[in-house]
Amino acid sequence: MPKSENYLAAQAPARKQTRAYSHAHYTLRRKVLKFLLRFIGIPLLAKVDSVNGVENIPESGPAILMINHIAFIDPIVIMPYLEREIVPLAKIEVYSYPVIGIFPRIWGVIPVRREEADRRAIQMSLDVLRAGEIILVAPEGTRGPELIEGREGIAYLGSRSGAPIVPTAIQGSVGFPALRFTSRWREPGVKIHFGPPFRFRSDYHRLGGEALRQMTDEAMYVLSAMLPEAQRGYYRDLENATQDTLEFL
């Protein structure tokens, strides 16, 4: 069985292993944390130079923010600048970080076991999308200065949910968090750009195998085109980009 089909089989529904997502359960605590991040945490720990394309975030309904992942702080600098609540996916290890590990639990971050096809994380993500909320996904599955080959989870979630995907390009987050007035603050800060949303065509919604790989790569090329050449990495050759599985909204 090809690698993509193994992945698809592993992501079969695991509803019995997850509890139903409740937006109301997290609303108040997220509002408090977002306020603290926006007016205390970010001003002290991260220099944000620009946030562009916020109009591309759907005002309601499910959506997937697809980010390139450079530094630990990437999801943190995104969430306070959006009106809507964002539910990030993050490696399960963040729950065990000293002190700061409590915040993913309070927020309701979806923990992901990266060394395996995590059926529980997939199901939790689909539950959040069915509730009409936004999830944040880093398809590379790890951090780095350049794009690496994206994992097929982004295609699985996008195609099975039908949710629009908002490509989100991040630049300049290396070196943060850093205390204000340190040398890092004298250098260029973080730039965030939300691109036009797209979704996977309906005739690809139940396909696996090579189709998942194609959907993933086409989505990653959209993200790559939003980044400077030095960050494009595996997807640097934009001449290879196709959009056969995509429809822009």
Strand proportion, as a percent range, falls in: 15-25%
Please give the domain count. Answer: 1
- How many helical elements? 8
CATH architecture: 3-Layer(aba) Sandwich
- What's the pLDDT, averaged over the residues? 90
The CATH topology is: Glycerol-3-phosphate (1)-acyltransferase
The secondary-structure element order is HHEEHEHEHEHEEEHHE
Distance between the termini: 34 Å
As residue ranges, the low-confidence spans are: 1-18
As a percent range, the share of helical residues equals 25-40%
CATH class (first level) name: Alpha Beta
**Beta strands, count:** 9
**How does the overall form come out from the CA principal axes?**
globular
Can you walk me through this structure?
- By secondary structure, the protein is α/β, with parallel strands linked by helices.
- It has one domain: Glycerol-3-phosphate (1)-acyltransferase.
- Helices cover 33% and strands 16% of the residues.
- It contains 8 helices and 9 strands.
- Strands 1-7-6-2-5-3-4 form a 7-stranded mixed beta sheet.
- α4 links the parallel β3 and β4.
- The longest helix has 23 residues.
- The protein starts with a helix and ends with a strand.
